[in-house]
Amino acid sequence: MYCKKCNVRLKEYLKECPLCHNKVENISEESNPYNSYVEKFSRKVNIKYFSKLIMKFLLLISFITLLLNIIINKTVNWSLYAITSSFYICSCYSYIILEDKKNAFIINVFALEMLLLIISYLTNTLSWFIYLVGPIILMVLYFVLLNIYLSNYKNMLRNFSIVLMYIALILFLLDGLIHLYKIDIFTTSWSIYSNIPILIISLLLFILSFNKKIQNEFEKRFFI
Amino acid sequence: MKHDKDWIKLDNAATIYPATIKRKYAALFRLTITLNEDIDRDILSESLIYILKRFPTFTYSLKEGFFWCYLEKIKTNPKIENDSNNPMIRRDFDKKYLFRVRTYKNRIAIEYFHALTDGTGGMTFMLSLVSEYLHRKYKMKKEYTNLILNIEDEPSDDECNDAFLKYANHKGALEHEKKAFHLKGTKINDNMINIITGILDINQIKKIAKKKNATITEYITSVLLLNLQELSNNTKKEIKISIPINLRNLYDTKTLRNFSSYVNVGITNEKNYTLKEVISIVKNQLKEKTKEEVINAKITGNVNLMKNYFIRRIPMFIKKHIMSYIESVMGDGYITTTLSNLGNIELPTNMKKYVTDMNFILGKSRGKSTAITMIGYNNKLYITFSRNIEESEFERLFFTTLSKEGIDVLIESNR
């Protein structure tokens, strides 16, 4: 085929001259070397990219706040609110960005601890954080990590007994910390009554967990 | 196994490309090879997986670190994909190979993200793949050239290393030029690209270029500059064409990573030049600018920039915006268009009988409307224009100029 206007030969499959767009008579069966399928941009929202963008924005805001604080007050005080809050929000996005959600959880908990510590420090009320909130958050963190760790082991009965022992430990510490916060002495009262039956049950379950028959029976009835 | 690292740094030229990635743009180029029979995708897939061990630097995906982007090893196998009417669309790079092998009927196309390799590296990968495919499909006896590697050989350090670092000297200089004229037009859809390929007889064009005392590249560049002069409506800006230079011709290296630079040649719009005058200007500029010491100063300038104490310490999320801006000003801003020439590709005789066509296409640019490529194979010269505007006036002017010179032009297009 030929385009008389442009004075060039055209591949037989073309219906018009790509140079001047004049229609040409096409009677050939020659196939188009290009596929007719048109690819589209992926419409998938890139949540990771979006999260990273927000994190970078927050980092920038924190940096500006810190600079302003230093310039205005010649010290670092109120900007710590903004910095630690930003860090906490960033740590929430780490669930999306990080492959290992366990690491994201650890980062998230430590960011929360840091935020609360800064709030208590700047408001001159450190005691509620040191005696109560800080340790309680750490106890929750270790409880979750313990469960994650135990999920690798299939002996449900033994896992359950270990979790019960940890709960007893939490109750003991909670009791002591509340006393420490209120009367400045680490002592226990009510936790003894709750912990004795819990520890007996957990010890019993721990021993029974070595019996395969009982272990199977337990798994059969309590599987999730 | 020493080239099987979990991650590697980008080569010096590649560092700029991740910074230029936008939601609908990435610096891509495409090489195609047409066989005389339809492609067997299963055999091609087996061949691709097999040859990857010989090309360790191709088995990485792009990742963003805090200070620089880097390449991270991929453990999964690449897949053969369907080719489309709108090649080189920007796609997600996350955990994906930086190349795509696509087929349509009897054509194999490989699209590369430029951070991975340049034209020569890409051509070596494609021809090695096709050679392996033909060997598996037709029991073709493999012959090795500098563009077809023996898959059984161990990858060398030279192939995997960043040659820029090896050959950069101490004295570098970054180029500062004036803004160039840009062709304007009606923008097409972001996911589309207009491709027009002119297939010419290489001997015909060689004869005409020789008559004008020029090489094919000099002649084609001059005709393009003359056409742009005609389209520029007496703009005061310079008309400049960027010509990538394969540095492997200047330095003794077989690297499969980026190792090319460029020279910008052009004319000012002080007067209406004739073809003879433009050829003379282009010849002189090419002669001056392709001297080893000039090229070396340019690559050293780039290496020094990336080694700069302060630049290295800027976080990537800030640095990439700066790099992207600088690239748009100093890259596309300084040139009207690009003419990338991969040269004449010679295949071993037993492979030649299976291969009917070859092509090389540049993806859409950010700042300029048109990019041009040249590749020679089997006495044919393929000149391809890829553009992101509706108007094809530039291509029409160029091919009709050649036609008026007595050159037989055969046109192919995706539209």
Instruction: Give the helix level of chain A as a range of percent.
Output: 55-70%
CATH class of the largest domain in chain B: Alpha Beta
Reading side by side through the largest sheet of chain B, how are the strands ordered? 10-9-11-13-14-8-15
Span between N and C termini of chain A?
72 Å
**Structural class designation of chain A:** mainly alpha
- Give the topology string of chain A: H per helix, E per strand: EEHHHHHHH
Looking at the structure, what is the overall shape of chain A? elongated
CATH architecture of the largest domain in chain B: 2-Layer Sandwich
Structure class of chain B: alpha+beta
Helices of chain A, by number, come to: 7
Strand/helix succession of chain B = EHEHEEEEEHHHEHHEEHHHHEHEEEHE
CATH fold descriptor of the largest domain in chain B: Chloramphenicol Acetyltransferase
Arithmetic mean pLDDT of chain B: 92
* CATH homologous superfamily (4th level) name of the largest domain in chain B: Nonribosomal peptide synthetase, condensation domain
Domains of chain A, number: 2
